[in-house]
Amino acid sequence: MGRNGMKKLRQALDAGEKLIGPFCVSNSPTLVEVVGYAGFDFVIIDCEHASTAATGSELENMVRAAYAAGIAPLVRTTKNNPSQILKAFNFGAQAVIVPHVNTREDAQAAVASGKYAPVGRMSCAPPVRAAKHGFIDWPEFYQQQLRDTLVIPLVEEDLGLSNIEAIAGVPGLGGVFFGPFDLAVSRGSPAAVYDLKTHAAERRTVYGAAKKHGLPVMDLAWDIESAKAMLELGADMIALGTDITLFANSCKELRKLVEATKLAVAAAKKVA
Fold it and tell me: What is the pLDDT of residues 172-228, one digit of tens each?
């Protein structure tokens, strides 16, 4: 997947591909395109922590940019909200990540909001953008949405961990996302997230429950080493940083090169 491959997320996962992509927190369609042209597999358009409105044209244009760049758009909503989930899928999101899912009932509500009947209760409208404004035959689009879109609960609290077997067993889910950052903060140890050993048992629990029910596992990495470790543990999708952190890190590295160049030039002048 990636670059020119507009293979659907579901198809890539079914083929056993391992997928990596960043969050987009800049509210910038341009950076969504850059992420796509760079060859990432997906981009997570973040409505929870970024300024992107969860139900308006901002989100629609971010999704549109993803399709223009050949990258699968995922959307994280601000909460387990039927209207937000509906709009994300109507705009063309291939997956919706629902934060703070803690119980089986939470997961059932997310599925109900993100799947057409008989799986869920999502409202339907044939001319939505995801159906190419009505140019996809409605019965065909209905089947596509049931088959290809993913509702992914984000399990990031102790309550969710204690209910992970019940959550993963909800029919209609498209995966499970383990959220280590909120979990670490809720336990009063924000820095612990950067030590893979800290949440080793929790990862095994979440990964095991998801695999038991045939669901892909998503995890959150902070660098290449942690991403590699998570893939080796069995993760199928890795959220790797954000568009802003990728840009910031590039700036930091470039700044180091600039400073080194200045020092080298100054040293050469002294010798001369």
Answer: 999 999 999 999 999 998 888 888 899 999 999 999 999 999 999 999 999 999 999
Closest CA relative to residue 88, chosen from 14, 150, 174: 150
CA dihedral 93, 6, 175, 217 (to 10 degrees): -130
> Per this entry, what is the length of the chain?
272
Question: What separation in angstroms does the CA of 41 have from each of 16, 47, 103, 144, 153?
Answer: 13, 19, 30, 20, 20
Across the chain, how many H-helices and E-strands are there? 12, 8
- Rounded CA-CA distance 155/199 in Å is 13
Note the pLDDT tens digit of each residue in 45-75: 999 999 998 888 999 999 999 999 999 999 9
The span from the CA of 186 to the CA of 197, in Å, is 17
Handedness of CA 68, 253, 75, 71 (dihedral sign): positive
Q: Which two tokens stand for residue 225?
A: 């080493």
Q: Check if CATH label 3.40.190.10 holds for domain 9-271.
A: no
